[in-house]
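C-alpha cells for chain A. Residues wanted.
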C-alpha cells in the first residue's frame, strides 16, 4: 500500500538536497520545523499528499514547499525566509492554505507540471509580507492553471507586485493588498481577475493594472492612494469593470487611466487627490509603451462606459501619433 509518514514535534534539516521528498507518499507533519540549506523544504510528487499543521518552514535555499503532482494542505503554518517562494504549486490536485503566515517568500501557482481535472487552489485567512526578494506576494502564471481563490487575506509590503496574474482565473474576496513596491494587483494576457469587497491601497506602482488582453472586474472595492500608475490602469486591449467601488486619492498620477482598452464604471466614485488633477483619463496609445520603444499590441480604440457614480473630472486625449480612426470614445 501507499507509504504513510507522520511527524510530530520534529526538526528536519536538509543539507545536501531537499529536506523532505514525498514521492507518492502521504506525509503529515504537526508542530515541526523544516529547513533546507541547498534545496526545497518539502517536495510533493508522484501523486503524494502533504498535510502541515502548526509547523514552521524556514531558511530554504529554494522554495519551502513544492507540489508537482499531488495534493497539499497547510494550516496555521509559518513560512519564513525562503529564497523563492514559501509555497509553490506547479501541478497536481487540490491545494489548501489556511491561517498561514508568509514572510520574505509568498505563494506561486503555475502550470509548469500538469494539473488534474477538478483541481483548484484556495488561500484563506493568510498574511503575506516581507521584502527579502523582488517577487510578487501571490503569483499565478500560465494558461492551464486551475482556479485560484484568495479570501480574507492580507498582502503587504512585498518587494514586487502584490498579486500578479499571467493567465488563469483568480478571485480575491475581502482581501487587503497594500504597500507593494510595484502594482497592487496586475493582470496580463488571458488572465481573468475578479476582486470583491477588498482594499487595494498605497502601492507604489499603481493599484489595479490590466493590460495585454486581460480582463479585470472589481465590485464593492476601495482602490485608493496608490502611486506611480495611479489607482486603476486599463491598457492595450484589456477590459476592466468597476462597480460600486471607491477610487480616490491617487498620488502623482490620474486616478483612472483607460488607453486602447474598454472600461465600464457603474455606481463608482472616482476622485483625484489633487483638486486640479484629472480623475479619469481616456486616451489613445499608451505613452509609456512608446517611450520604451516597444511595439504596441493590436488593440481597438479606447472606450469608456459610465453609469451612475461620481467623477471628479474627465479628460479625453489622443496621442499625437494616433490614427484619427482610433480616437477614444466616451
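Reply:
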Amino acid at each position: 500500500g501507499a507509504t504513510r509518514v507522520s511527524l510530530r514535534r520534529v526538526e528536519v534539516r536538509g543539507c545536501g538536497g531537499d529536506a523532505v521528498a514525498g514521492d507518492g507518499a502521504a506525509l503529515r507533519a504537526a508542530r515541526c520545523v523544516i529547513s533546507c540549506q541547498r534545496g526545497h523544504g518539502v517536495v510533493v510528487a508522484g501523486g503524494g499528499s502533504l498535510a502541515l499543521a502548526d509547523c514552521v518552514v524556514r531558511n530554504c535555499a529554494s522554495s519551502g514547499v513544492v507540489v508537482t503532482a499531488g495534493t497539499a494542505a497547510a494550516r496555521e503554518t509559518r513560512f519564513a525566509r525562503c529564497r523563492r517562494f514559501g509555497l509553490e504549486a506547479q501541478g497536481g490536485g487540490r491545494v489548501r492554505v489556511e491561517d498561514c503566515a508568509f514572510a520574505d517568500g509568498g505563494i506561486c501557482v503555475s502550470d509548469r507540471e500538469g494539473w488534474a481535472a477538478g483541481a483548484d487552489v484556495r488561500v484563506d485567512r493568510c498574511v503575506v509580507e516581507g521584502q527579502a526578494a523582488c517577487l510578487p506576494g501571490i503569483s499565478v502564471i500560465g494558461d492551464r492553471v486551475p482556479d485560484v481563490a484568495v479570501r480574507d487575506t492580507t498582502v503587504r509590503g512585498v518587494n514586487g507586485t502584490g498579486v500578479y496574474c499571467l493567465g488563469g482565473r483568480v478571485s480575491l474576496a475581502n482581501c487587503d493588498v497594500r504597500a507593494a513596491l510595484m502594482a497592487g494587483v496586475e493582470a496580463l494576457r488571458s488572465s481573468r481577475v475578479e476582486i470583491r469587497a477588498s482594499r487595494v491601497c498605497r502601492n507604489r506602482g499603481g493599484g489595479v493594472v490590466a493590460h495585454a488582453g486581460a480582463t479585470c472586474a472589481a465590485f464593492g472595492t476601495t482602490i485608493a492612494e496608490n502611486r506611480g500608475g495611479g489607482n486603476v490602469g486599463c491598457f492595450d486591449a484589456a477590459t476592466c469593470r468597476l462597480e460600486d467601488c471607491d477610487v480616490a486619492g491617487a498620488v502623482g498620477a490620474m486616478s483612472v487611466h483607460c488607453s486602447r482598452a474598454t472600461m465600464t464604471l457603474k455606481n463608482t466614485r472616482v476622485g483625484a487627490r489633487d483638486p486640479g488633477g484629472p480623475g479619469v483619463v481616456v486616451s489613445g496609445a499608451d505613452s509609456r509603451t512608446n517611450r520604451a520603444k516597444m511595439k504596441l499590441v493590436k488593440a481597438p480604440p479606447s472606450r469608456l462606459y459610465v453609469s451612475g457614480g461620481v467623477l471628479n473630472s474627465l479628460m479625453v486625449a489622443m496621442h499625437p501619433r494616433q490614427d484619427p480612426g482610433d480616437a477614444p470614445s466616451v
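The CA atoms of residues 223 and 327 lie 28 Å apart. The radius of gyration is 21 Å.
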